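To: structure subgroup
Subject: Chain for Friday's discussion

All,

I'm putting the inputs and outputs inline so they're searchable in the archive.
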Amino acid sequence: MVTGASGALGSGVVAALLERGAIVHAPVMEASWRGDARVQATFGVSLDDEAQVTAYYAALPALWASIHLVGGFAMAPIAETKLADLEKQWRMNTVTCFLSCREAVRALRRGAGGRIVNVAARPVVTPVGGMIAYAAAKAGVASITQSLAAELIGEGILVNAVVPSIIDTAVNRASMPKADYDKWPKPAELAEAIGFLASPQNTLTSGTLVPVYGRS
């Protein structure tokens, strides 16, 4: 299961999973992956809505892995950050991660172990100024990841998060036209790391915040 499958990173992750022979379930807000029988897309699921997330996961078959890519970004100095800005970042990042993780655990328990992969962000481990709402929300993702890993390790469910920097996407290039794009991690590169953490080949790694920012 992949949230955020319509985005640049999500598209890379889904492609990598399909190459590995996976069947992918994807709650999406827009048309994507249409025509591929191995991608089971469900439209209109709001991942910060508890009832909708619960119903979506309950209808899925037993899962092996649940990968949570949905999130959002904002930056501003604290004096210019409204409470509404913090609440929006919290809902887009922390709430979507929490609800997806909770329901993923229930779905994974219908099988025999499994994997959960979340996406934190580099400012969580290398603080920078000017993005306090985003960093705080992603810190919530990191904490959920590590706490859940400790809770589930005895059940054979491994939980990790990747920690990217600015990802090399068309949107990010347009917003930072003078940046050195060669140093940014590519969606396909991140997809490989996520694919490993979600795979049966990962037999030991859990509770980690995996840096995936290379030279950036």
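Points worth raising on Friday:
The longest strand covers residues 157-163.
The beta strands are 2-3, 24-28, 39-43, 65-68, 114-119, 157-163, 209-211.

D.
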